Amino acid sequence: MRKIFLTLSIFSLIISCSDDFVDIKDEGQTGVGDFFKTQEDAIEATSAIYSFLRSWENTGFPAQFVFGVTGDDVEKGSNPSDASFINAYDQFTYTVSDDGVRGYWIGQWQAVNRANQVITNVPNIEMDATLKTRLVAEAKMLRAYFYFNLVRIYGGVPIYDGLPADGNYLKSRNSADEVYAFIVKDLTEASDVLPQTYPLADLGRVTKGGALGLLSKVYLYMKEYQKAYDTSNQVIALGYSLDPDFNHLFRPAGEFGSESVFEVNCDCSAAYGGSQYAEVQGVRNQFGWGFFTPTQALEDAFEAGDIRKELTILREGETTLEGDLIKKNDPQAGNTWNQKVYVPTSLNNSTCGSYGSIQNFKILRFADILLINAEAANELGNTAVAISNINKVRTRAQLADTTASTQSALRLAIWQERRVELAMEMDRFPDLVRTGQAETYLGPLGFKTGKNELFPIPLDAMNASAGLFTQNPGY
Questions:
Q1: Which CATH fold would you assign to the domain 1-83+90-194+439-475?
Q2: Which among 365, 341, 354, 321 has a CA at the least distance from the CA of 424?
Q3: Average pLDDT score over the chain
Q4: I need a labelling partner for 44 at 20 to 30 A (CA). Which of 2, 51, 184, 474 fits?
Q5: Top-level CATH class of 222-262+365-435?
């Protein structure tokens, strides 16, 4: 398969002062000027967007720095002396110069660029018209996902609807409201085109349900509760269902199951390799590096009898349901890890060079859709629907129905259910920010209201913006 060389514009200089982040054209690669000629080119360029979803920047350290450790359900992990710089994210002491702040920014913009290459260039290719329309829709949904990540972490950012015709990437930040409107437009247009299912050979491509599901979550962040409710109802009507077995859901056999709404295919392949998502979090020196481990606060958050607790937290000395004895090989490491990324030894495929490289990355599950629907319904005063949906999630966890019955009590119950259902899936920090609970839960860790809701724009991006960027408050 040919490598795709997509020339990065001057905007790459805004997001990076290092050649490490600029694509260099090597012998055997295809330059962008010679690319985007055939249907195969269109397919390969779209696949390049998908390859980013499993990347280090989107599933490894940079993503965990900003979405993981900043929540109160995840801490650094490993051993105290290993990568102690990560504590800056747990304690909210990171600065404009931190590599994580910069690395996540760079990665998401590179992904936006890949999507825009498809959105701009594929329409000009003579090829199957239906496929062309679908590939552009896929790129729009994926671009919306990257912008959703950017706006939640950095606030308003520049909007690039395709590659700028004049080649000028130097522009001011758009407002967060404008970015959200752009995301809604992309997802709405994508959902009108994308199919709900694909042949097995295309497993993992984004779907109508994925676009609508992400749109319902975006509306929830916008506090557009009627739209979040209506859109999540559209997703529910598509036929998704909860996996009855919470453990099965997170093992390889449960991938792309009935609960999968938006899931990254990390199957080991010659073209794209696997993913380090599981390796980074695997049991220290038994399976992986042992980072990003559950906190005591998460342990304490589960109700008595909630089966999710022991299926979320993997413990030193336990024997898993699949027969692995958990035994770390670092006496200074902690004793608990994220069980949701555990790949049984019998199923591990090391062809791609690391433990758990086949473990898919679940971006959006049907349980999340039910809780989005419940939250939106409750804010609209429809407590009966809210109670029904939260109880569906609780029933799988082998818990009794919620006792909450008023709007205010249900609001807290739904937020709590999100905490334990989606634990360690990089939802906790943005949930705390959007619901106004961050100071309560994260204040003792160093979170400051009015500052830490957002990360800073990286220093080199500020310096390269020719004065067009305004820094986020407090930095």
A1: 1.25.40
A2: 341
A3: 92
A4: 184
A5: mainly alpha
